[in-house]
Design brief:
- The chain has about 110 residues and is an alpha+beta fold.
- It has one domain: Alpha-Beta Plaits (2-Layer Sandwich).
- The protein has a four-stranded antiparallel beta sheet.
- Helix 1 packs antiparallel against helix 2.
- The radius of gyration is 16 Å and the shape is elongated.
- The termini are close together.
Length: about 110
């Protein structure tokens, strides 16, 4: 059975188009006949940079909230490392939140 993963990443909206274009071009598409398959939701993120950090947004020691976009998509195992490196290269945050979840392709469940 092919291994599939769901990736979720939070990013400032101004980086959304560049991120989705680069991810799309760095992976084999999961859904036959479709590309640019992403789910997106507006969220409010919160963080407090600690001493020694170099925040993209906010200042050390001060709790910050900001609007972000949560981007989710499916990726094959063979593309996983390349896609994560693509996200890390584009993402403006010093420590981007990139969640990786193993998942079942729905067609594998009903066959």
């Amino acid at each position: 059975m092919e291994k599939i993963f769901k990736i979720a990443v939070y990013i400032p909206e101004e980086f959304l188009e560049m991120l989705t274009e680069k991810i799309n071009s760095s992976m084999t598409q999961i859904y036959p006949g479709y590309d640019m398959v992403f789910s997106m939701a507006r969220v409010t993120g919160m963080w407090r940079p600690l001493p020694g950090s170099d925040p993209y947004d906010g200042e050390v020691g001060v709790t910050k909230t900001a609007e972000e976009i949560r981007v989710e998509f499916a990726v094959r195992e063979e593309d996983l490392e390349r896609v994560i490196r693509t996200i890390a290269d584009i993402h403006p945050y010093e420590e981007p939140a990139i969640d990786v979840f193993p998942m079942y392709a729905w067609k594998s469940v009903i066959r």
